[in-house]
Amino acid sequence: MWIALAVLLMLTTLWLALILPARSTKEQRAPFVHRTFAHRGLFAADQSVPENSLPAFRAAVEAGYGIELDVQLSKDKVVVVFHDDDLKRVCGVDARVDSLTFDELQQLALLNTTERIPTFSDVLAVLDGKIPMIVELKSGGDWKTLCEKTLALLAQYKGDYCVESFHPLLVRWFYLHAPQILRGQLSEAYRYSKRYVPWYQSLMMSRLLTNILTHPQFIAYRIGPKCLSVRISEAMGAMHVAWTARPTDDLAKLAQRNDAIIFEHYRPEPRF
Questions:
Q1: pTM summary value
Q2: Whole-number pLDDT of residue 141
Q3: Where are the domains of the chain?
Q4: Is the pLDDT of residue 123 over 90?
Q5: Annotated catalytic residue 39
Q6: Which of 39, 167, 215, 240 is catalytic?
Q7: 235-267 burial, b if ≥16 CB within 10 A, otherwise e?
Protein backbone atom coordinates (compact mmCIF):
# COMPACT_ATOMS: atom_id res chain seq x y z
CA MET A 1 0.00 0.00 0.00
CA TRP A 2 2.77 2.45 0.94
CA ILE A 3 4.58 1.71 -2.31
CA ALA A 4 1.40 2.43 -4.28
CA LEU A 5 0.92 5.72 -2.41
CA ALA A 6 4.55 6.67 -3.05
CA VAL A 7 4.20 5.94 -6.77
CA LEU A 8 0.95 7.92 -6.90
CA LEU A 9 2.64 10.85 -5.15
CA MET A 10 5.57 10.74 -7.57
CA LEU A 11 3.27 10.64 -10.60
CA THR A 12 1.18 13.51 -9.25
CA THR A 13 4.30 15.59 -8.60
CA LEU A 14 5.55 14.88 -12.13
CA TRP A 15 2.19 15.84 -13.62
CA LEU A 16 2.12 19.11 -11.70
CA ALA A 17 5.67 19.88 -12.81
CA LEU A 18 4.71 19.27 -16.45
CA ILE A 19 1.71 21.63 -16.42
CA LEU A 20 3.13 24.35 -14.15
CA PRO A 21 2.78 27.77 -15.85
CA ALA A 22 5.09 30.75 -15.48
CA ARG A 23 4.04 33.71 -13.39
CA SER A 24 3.35 37.07 -15.02
CA THR A 25 3.76 40.44 -13.39
CA LYS A 26 0.90 42.81 -12.72
CA GLU A 27 2.39 45.18 -15.30
CA GLN A 28 2.47 42.46 -17.97
CA ARG A 29 -1.13 41.46 -17.33
CA ALA A 30 -2.68 44.91 -16.99
CA PRO A 31 -3.17 45.78 -20.71
CA PHE A 32 -5.00 42.50 -21.34
CA VAL A 33 -7.08 41.80 -18.23
CA HIS A 34 -10.82 42.43 -18.58
CA ARG A 35 -10.43 43.29 -22.26
CA THR A 36 -12.25 41.95 -25.31
CA PHE A 37 -10.24 41.17 -28.44
CA ALA A 38 -11.69 41.16 -31.95
CA HIS A 39 -10.86 37.81 -33.56
CA ARG A 40 -8.94 38.49 -36.80
CA GLY A 41 -10.07 42.10 -36.48
CA LEU A 42 -13.63 43.39 -36.41
CA PHE A 43 -14.68 41.62 -39.60
CA ALA A 44 -18.24 41.31 -40.87
CA ALA A 45 -20.17 38.08 -40.34
CA ASP A 46 -20.83 37.96 -44.08
CA GLN A 47 -17.14 38.71 -44.77
CA SER A 48 -17.99 41.89 -46.69
CA VAL A 49 -15.28 43.29 -44.43
CA PRO A 50 -12.99 40.27 -44.53
CA GLU A 51 -11.10 38.70 -41.67
CA ASN A 52 -7.49 39.73 -41.11
CA SER A 53 -7.88 42.72 -43.43
CA LEU A 54 -6.84 46.34 -42.92
CA PRO A 55 -10.49 47.56 -42.80
CA ALA A 56 -11.25 44.97 -40.09
CA PHE A 57 -8.33 46.21 -38.01
CA ARG A 58 -9.27 49.86 -38.53
CA ALA A 59 -12.81 49.06 -37.36
CA ALA A 60 -11.44 47.42 -34.20
CA VAL A 61 -9.31 50.45 -33.43
CA GLU A 62 -12.26 52.80 -33.91
CA ALA A 63 -14.42 50.66 -31.59
CA GLY A 64 -11.73 50.49 -28.91
CA TYR A 65 -11.25 46.72 -29.00
CA GLY A 66 -8.03 44.86 -28.69
CA ILE A 67 -7.31 42.56 -31.61
CA GLU A 68 -6.16 39.01 -32.17
CA LEU A 69 -4.41 38.23 -35.45
CA ASP A 70 -2.37 35.53 -37.15
CA VAL A 71 1.10 35.81 -38.68
CA GLN A 72 3.03 33.54 -41.00
CA LEU A 73 5.66 33.77 -43.74
CA SER A 74 5.36 34.08 -47.49
CA LYS A 75 7.78 32.16 -49.69
CA ASP A 76 10.18 35.13 -49.69
CA LYS A 77 9.99 35.46 -45.89
CA VAL A 78 7.65 38.43 -45.61
CA VAL A 79 5.55 38.33 -42.42
CA VAL A 80 1.92 38.41 -43.54
CA VAL A 81 -1.33 38.41 -41.59
CA PHE A 82 -3.39 35.37 -42.59
CA HIS A 83 -5.01 32.55 -40.64
CA ASP A 84 -5.20 29.40 -42.78
CA ASP A 85 -2.17 27.42 -43.90
CA ASP A 86 -3.56 27.35 -47.42
CA LEU A 87 -5.35 29.93 -49.56
CA LYS A 88 -8.35 27.91 -50.69
CA ARG A 89 -11.05 29.08 -48.26
CA VAL A 90 -10.18 32.77 -48.26
CA CYS A 91 -8.66 33.33 -51.71
CA GLY A 92 -9.98 30.42 -53.79
CA VAL A 93 -6.49 29.17 -54.66
CA ASP A 94 -5.31 25.65 -53.88
CA ALA A 95 -1.85 26.56 -52.59
CA ARG A 96 -0.07 27.10 -49.31
CA VAL A 97 0.67 30.64 -48.16
CA ASP A 98 4.38 29.87 -47.90
CA SER A 99 4.48 28.54 -51.47
CA LEU A 100 3.91 32.01 -52.97
CA THR A 101 5.97 35.19 -52.79
CA PHE A 102 4.44 38.30 -51.30
CA ASP A 103 4.03 39.84 -54.77
CA GLU A 104 2.16 36.72 -55.87
CA LEU A 105 -0.04 36.84 -52.77
CA GLN A 106 -0.93 40.43 -53.61
CA GLN A 107 -2.64 39.26 -56.78
CA LEU A 108 -5.24 37.39 -54.69
CA ALA A 109 -8.44 38.92 -53.30
CA LEU A 110 -9.69 38.25 -49.79
CA LEU A 111 -13.11 36.58 -49.92
CA ASN A 112 -14.18 38.20 -53.22
CA THR A 113 -13.51 41.74 -52.02
CA THR A 114 -10.95 44.28 -53.20
CA GLU A 115 -8.84 43.68 -50.09
CA ARG A 116 -5.48 41.94 -50.20
CA ILE A 117 -3.41 40.00 -47.67
CA PRO A 118 -1.68 42.64 -45.50
CA THR A 119 1.85 42.55 -44.19
CA PHE A 120 2.32 42.60 -40.45
CA SER A 121 4.11 45.93 -40.88
CA ASP A 122 1.03 47.42 -42.57
CA VAL A 123 -1.20 46.23 -39.74
CA LEU A 124 1.09 47.66 -37.08
CA ALA A 125 0.98 51.01 -38.86
CA VAL A 126 -2.84 50.94 -38.81
CA LEU A 127 -2.96 50.07 -35.12
CA ASP A 128 -0.40 52.77 -34.31
CA GLY A 129 -0.01 51.58 -30.74
CA LYS A 130 -3.60 52.49 -29.87
CA ILE A 131 -4.89 49.09 -28.77
CA PRO A 132 -3.45 45.90 -27.24
CA MET A 133 -2.76 43.01 -29.58
CA ILE A 134 -2.60 39.22 -29.31
CA VAL A 135 -0.33 37.78 -32.00
CA GLU A 136 -0.78 34.13 -32.92
CA LEU A 137 2.25 32.65 -34.66
CA LYS A 138 1.32 29.91 -37.11
CA SER A 139 3.47 26.79 -37.10
CA GLY A 140 4.48 26.58 -40.75
CA GLY A 141 7.81 25.42 -42.13
CA ASP A 142 10.42 28.01 -41.16
CA TRP A 143 9.05 28.83 -37.73
CA LYS A 144 12.35 30.11 -36.32
CA THR A 145 12.56 32.80 -39.00
CA LEU A 146 8.92 33.68 -38.33
CA CYS A 147 9.70 34.15 -34.64
CA GLU A 148 12.76 36.27 -35.37
CA LYS A 149 11.05 38.51 -37.90
CA THR A 150 7.90 38.88 -35.79
CA LEU A 151 9.95 39.86 -32.75
CA ALA A 152 11.87 42.46 -34.78
CA LEU A 153 8.62 44.02 -35.99
CA LEU A 154 7.02 43.95 -32.53
CA ALA A 155 10.01 45.82 -31.13
CA GLN A 156 8.91 48.80 -33.23
CA TYR A 157 5.29 48.73 -32.03
CA LYS A 158 4.47 51.39 -29.47
CA GLY A 159 1.44 49.64 -28.01
CA ASP A 160 0.94 46.58 -25.83
CA TYR A 161 1.19 43.08 -27.24
CA CYS A 162 1.56 39.44 -26.31
CA VAL A 163 2.22 36.29 -28.31
CA GLU A 164 0.65 32.84 -28.48
CA SER A 165 0.83 29.68 -30.54
CA PHE A 166 -0.52 26.15 -30.69
CA HIS A 167 3.00 24.90 -31.37
CA PRO A 168 4.99 24.55 -28.14
CA LEU A 169 8.32 25.18 -29.88
CA LEU A 170 7.25 28.68 -30.92
CA VAL A 171 6.12 29.53 -27.39
CA ARG A 172 9.40 28.15 -26.07
CA TRP A 173 11.36 30.29 -28.55
CA PHE A 174 9.86 33.43 -27.04
CA TYR A 175 10.52 32.12 -23.53
CA LEU A 176 14.20 31.74 -24.42
CA HIS A 177 14.73 34.82 -26.62
CA ALA A 178 12.19 37.37 -25.37
CA PRO A 179 11.10 36.39 -21.84
CA GLN A 180 9.88 39.93 -21.17
CA ILE A 181 6.99 39.45 -23.62
CA LEU A 182 3.80 37.94 -22.21
CA ARG A 183 3.36 34.54 -23.88
CA GLY A 184 0.54 32.04 -24.03
CA GLN A 185 -0.19 28.47 -25.01
CA LEU A 186 -3.16 27.96 -27.30
CA SER A 187 -5.07 24.79 -26.55
CA GLU A 188 -8.37 23.03 -27.00
CA ALA A 189 -10.06 19.80 -25.99
CA TYR A 190 -8.64 16.51 -27.26
CA ARG A 191 -11.72 15.84 -29.41
CA TYR A 192 -10.87 18.92 -31.51
CA SER A 193 -7.10 18.76 -31.78
CA LYS A 194 -7.02 15.04 -32.66
CA ARG A 195 -8.55 15.95 -36.03
CA TYR A 196 -5.33 17.49 -37.35
CA VAL A 197 -2.42 16.12 -35.30
CA PRO A 198 -1.50 12.58 -34.18
CA TRP A 199 -3.27 11.37 -31.05
CA TYR A 200 -0.18 11.61 -28.82
CA GLN A 201 0.45 15.23 -29.84
CA SER A 202 -3.21 16.01 -29.30
CA LEU A 203 -3.05 14.45 -25.84
CA MET A 204 -0.01 16.50 -24.86
CA MET A 205 -1.46 19.73 -26.27
CA SER A 206 -4.88 19.36 -24.70
CA ARG A 207 -3.40 18.39 -21.30
CA LEU A 208 -0.72 21.15 -21.37
CA LEU A 209 2.03 18.60 -20.82
CA THR A 210 4.54 20.82 -22.65
CA ASN A 211 4.24 23.69 -20.17
CA ILE A 212 7.48 22.49 -18.61
CA LEU A 213 9.24 23.54 -21.84
CA THR A 214 7.23 26.60 -22.83
CA HIS A 215 6.50 28.25 -19.45
CA PRO A 216 3.33 30.00 -20.69
CA GLN A 217 1.90 32.85 -18.65
CA PHE A 218 -1.60 32.46 -20.06
CA ILE A 219 -3.66 29.63 -21.49
CA ALA A 220 -5.84 30.58 -24.46
CA TYR A 221 -8.44 27.80 -24.48
CA ARG A 222 -11.28 27.03 -26.85
CA ILE A 223 -14.63 27.71 -25.20
CA GLY A 224 -16.08 24.57 -23.64
CA PRO A 225 -15.43 22.23 -20.70
CA LYS A 226 -11.84 22.31 -19.47
CA CYS A 227 -9.91 19.21 -18.49
CA LEU A 228 -8.30 18.97 -15.05
CA SER A 229 -4.84 19.92 -16.33
CA VAL A 230 -6.13 23.24 -17.69
CA ARG A 231 -8.06 24.02 -14.51
CA ILE A 232 -5.07 23.23 -12.32
CA SER A 233 -2.69 25.26 -14.51
CA GLU A 234 -5.02 28.24 -14.24
CA ALA A 235 -5.28 27.73 -10.48
CA MET A 236 -1.48 27.84 -10.32
CA GLY A 237 -1.44 31.32 -11.83
CA ALA A 238 -1.95 31.16 -15.61
CA MET A 239 -4.19 33.87 -17.04
CA HIS A 240 -7.47 32.61 -18.51
CA VAL A 241 -8.12 33.64 -22.13
CA ALA A 242 -11.25 32.33 -23.89
CA TRP A 243 -11.62 31.84 -27.65
CA THR A 244 -13.74 32.35 -29.66
CA ALA A 245 -16.89 33.85 -28.11
CA ARG A 246 -19.99 34.21 -30.29
CA PRO A 247 -23.49 35.59 -29.60
CA THR A 248 -24.82 32.12 -28.75
CA ASP A 249 -22.37 31.70 -25.85
CA ASP A 250 -23.16 32.57 -22.25
CA LEU A 251 -21.28 35.85 -22.37
CA ALA A 252 -21.87 36.81 -18.73
CA LYS A 253 -20.42 33.49 -17.56
CA LEU A 254 -17.41 33.88 -19.85
CA ALA A 255 -16.71 37.31 -18.36
CA GLN A 256 -16.86 35.86 -14.84
CA ARG A 257 -14.51 32.97 -15.59
CA ASN A 258 -11.87 34.55 -17.84
CA ASP A 259 -9.31 37.35 -17.76
CA ALA A 260 -9.71 38.16 -21.46
CA ILE A 261 -12.12 37.15 -24.24
CA ILE A 262 -11.50 36.79 -27.96
CA PHE A 263 -14.78 37.29 -29.84
CA GLU A 264 -16.40 37.50 -33.26
CA HIS A 265 -19.80 38.22 -34.87
CA TYR A 266 -21.05 40.55 -32.14
CA ARG A 267 -20.00 43.75 -30.40
CA PRO A 268 -19.37 43.43 -26.67
CA GLU A 269 -18.10 46.20 -24.45
CA PRO A 270 -14.36 46.80 -24.97
CA ARG A 271 -13.87 46.16 -21.24
CA PHE A 272 -15.73 43.91 -18.81
A1: 0.96
A2: 84
A3: 25-263
A4: yes
A5: yes
A6: 39
A7: eeebbbbbbbbeeebebeebbeebbbbbbbeee
